[in-house]
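User: Let's play a game. I give you a shape written as tokens, and you guess the letters that built it. Ready? Here's round one.
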């Protein structure tokens, strides 16, 4: 197919494809869509983007079968790591997050949480401690948070260690 830019010198064509075309058709749109629209800390965005890279590679490249993953031991190991990582990201992690959200202790009624006090002629409310230590009250929450953090960290480290395999 004939393109008008074929008539231009090559440096102008590269300039167009590098600077103008991405304005109208940005690259890596799947990764851009994974970034939340609301504010979140970088510690939250790092796993989101990197997990989307793994999901994208698995769904777009690995499933297409363009690489012989049984060619050598390194490729076999990476294939197993990729499958396990994808399963964690798509199945296990949402399950762990659900369990984390359901593990918070129930809230007490507001009249039990605060007691009225008189200070400088004004009525104030003071938080009443229920006497249960934080580590005891939130032990399930802490467990699931640590489990998610440890597995996320392991997958992110593996991603960096095996990044050369993401090229096809």
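Assistant: Ready! My guess for every position:
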């Amino acid at each position: 197919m004939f393109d008008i830019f074929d008539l231009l010198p090559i440096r102008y064509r590269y300039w167009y494809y590098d600077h103008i075309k991405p304005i109208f058709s940005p690259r890596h749109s799947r990764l851009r869509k994974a970034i939340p629209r609301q504010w979140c800390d970088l510690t939250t965005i790092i796993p989101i983007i990197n997990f989307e890279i793994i999901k994208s590679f698995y769904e777009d490249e690995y499933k297409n079968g363009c690489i012989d993953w049984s060619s050598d031991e390194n490729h076999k190991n990476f294939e197993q790591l990729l499958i396990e990582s994808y399963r964690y990201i798509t199945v296990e992690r949402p399950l762990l997050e659900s369990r984390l959200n359901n593990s918070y202790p129930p809230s007490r009624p507001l009249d039990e949480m605060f007691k009225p006090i008189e200070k400088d002629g004004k009525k104030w409310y003071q938080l009443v401690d229920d006497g249960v230590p934080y580590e005891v009250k939130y032990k399930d929450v802490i467990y699931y948070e640590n489990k998610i953090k440890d597995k996320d960290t392991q997958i992110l480290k593996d991603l960096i260690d095996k990044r050369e395999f993401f090229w096809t």
